[in-house]
Write a structure and sequence with these properties.
Length: about 230
């Protein structure tokens, strides 16, 4: 039986919750897996990218395991409310999407970005607008927030290539947003209890509605089996 899924509507800036001036995560403990500072800026030979692929608990777990990743954190991006809380974002009234910040190495044997993007595309369903599995709302929309021209180029080219492959497999059109991070209101880290959540709660919730279709990324190697 076909079940109609009502389409979530993006809140307007005027209707968004007011938020607050102070961050909900003013300082962070070291990353529980990588031992690095979750909030430090990308250093020499490093870059940062922001990825939204549904519930951020499981996305962060996937990303911190990839080779070349220096640190990760979870937060909110692409909306209007300054320094939102997790609860506020779940209402859909902040405009944000749950997002993982990934700092990765670009020196040595090459950039970790191709594998990061390959894993991003394959670990969720980029053809579903404003939901992943049973998680419904604009806060679960698929997005890539880039910080360099090379990131934007590779994200766009890989999206276009993967879109063609998914269509050949009978899937829908990719709806993932690719946005310059500088054109957003910024990245707002979530509360400390959400950081590396699945280390704290190993049997916690994971939502990954994978398409099951491989995304070719030259030089990226195989997708991590997580």
């Amino acid at each position: 039986m076909f079940i109609h899924r009502p389409e979530p509507v993006m809140v307007s800036p005027e209707q968004a919750l007011p938020g607050r001036s102070a961050p909900v995560l003013p300082a962070a403990d070291p990353h529980l897996v990588l031992g690095t500072d979750m909030l430090r800026p990308a250093g020499e030979g490093e870059e940062e990218i922001f990825l939204a692929a549904g519930c951020y608990w499981g996305v962060e777990e996937i990303m911190w395991a990839l080779p070349g990743v220096v640190t990760t954190s979870v937060g909110f991006m692409g909306g209007f409310t300054p320094n939102p809380t997790y609860h506020e974002v779940t209402t859909g009234l902040t405009g944000h999407t749950e997002t993982v910040r990934v700092v990765y190495r670009v020196d040595g044997e090459g950039s970790a970005l191709p594998l990061i993007l390959k894993t991003f595309w394959e670990s969720h369903d980029p053809t579903t607008l404003n939901y992943q599995g049973n998680d419904v709302g604009t806060q679960y929309r698929s997005a890539v927030f880039t910080t360099t021209p090379d990131q934007a180029e590779l994200a766009t080219s890989s999206r276009d290539t993967y879109d063609q492959i998914l269509r050949k497999h009978g899937k829908g059109k990719i709806v993932t947003e690719i946005v310059d991070a500088a054109d957003t209101t910024g990245y707002f880290p979530a509360e400390i209890e959400h950081q590396q959540y699945l280390i704290k709660v190993p049997n916690g919730y994971r939502c990954h509605t994978k398409s099951g279709v491989a995304c070719p990324m030259p030089g990226s190697g195989p997708l991590a089996d997580l």
